[in-house]
Amino acid sequence: MNHRTHPLPEPRPVTTRTARWWQAAFVLASCLSVAQPIAAQQPTKADTTADGRKIIPKDTANAARHQTLFTYRDAALAGGFTVLTVAMFPVDQHVAERLQNQSLQGQRFLENAATGFEWITSPGAYFIGGGLYVVGRATKRPNLADLGWHGTEAVLLGTGITGLLKGVLGRARPFVTSDTLPSDFQLLGGFGNADRQSFPSGHTTTAFAAASAVTSEIQRMWPKYTWYAAPVLYGGATMVGLSRMYHNKHWASDVVLGAAIGTFSGLKVVRYSHAHPDNRIDKVILRAAIVPDGRGGTYVSFNFPAP
């Protein structure tokens, strides 16, 4: 009996466009693989105070005050971000060149999506956080005000750290050198020169600060929703970083370091605030009163603790 043999089909070549999408997906997956585990950190079960705000129960809160603000998990997370940032340096130029290819830059959908993600982050994060805070105080929903304020507080902290590093390190943005010189740093060159404020990415810091703070608050107040909220929040934050790279404003390593600063800002703000519920900042902000002024408007009243 004769058997006919058929030659195996030749493997389909990987196109340049396919390679570019795999590279973008690698950056996305890398950021998520580092950031996502923080959603699994289980904070202490919350209780409700007299004013309706959920905080850590008294006995565990007292114990928390004696714990260090940084744990071995933080060290592992910082180590992961450090390795990923360093790993991006050798491929910064390659990734930037790929993302600036005309076939990608000419797609209106990608352009609109990137612009939308950036706008939602800045100034969107401030409007969203501030709006949640105001609505929470006005409607006497302290947990909503708590979420809005701590998300905004994390963004402010991360932005301050990022702004300082931008000014001191003075790294040139990719478009300044036509994506050819990622090693162009100038000490103190970022102060007063926006073209040298590339490292780290401020938009990415803001996005990850908001994502980590909100995820931590959701884990504290509505833990069963964490596994739904975390992928959405961190996935959206990662897309912000990719958008900044797509617009040629940041190198890949800028985005990774921005994600690290934002993640730690959100984690530390929420952890410290609920381990120290009587800290002065929260006393002033979260106990503010928003009441009608009798003439169709409203006013905000703050109570400042005595020194």
SSE blueprint:
Layout: H1 16-35, E1 47-48, E2 54-55, H2 58-65, H3 72-88, H4 92-99, H5 102-105, H6 108-121, H7 124-138, H8 142-169, H9 202-221, H10 226-246, H11 252-275, H12 280-285, E3 289-292, E4 298-301
Antiparallel strand pairs: 1-2, 3-4
CATH architecture: Up-down Bundle
Q: Which stretches are low in confidence, meaning pLDDT under 50 for 5 or more residues running?
A: 1-46, 56-66
Helix-and-strand structural type: mainly alpha
Note the total helix count.
Answer: 12
Rounded mean pLDDT is 80
**Terminal Cα span:** 99 Å
Number of strands: 4
Task: State the helical fraction.
Answer: 55-70%
Largest sheet: 2 strands, antiparallel
The sequence of SSEs as H and E is: HEEHHHHHHHHHHHEE
Beta-strand percentage range = under 5%
Radius of gyration in whole Å, from Cα?
A: 23 Å
CATH class: Mainly Alpha
What is the compact description of this entry?
With 307 residues, the chain is mainly alpha-helical. The chain contains 12 helices and 4 strands, in the order αββαααααααααααββ.
Molecular structure report:
By secondary structure, the protein is mostly helical. The protein contains twelve helices and four strands. Helix 6 (108-121) crosses helix 10.
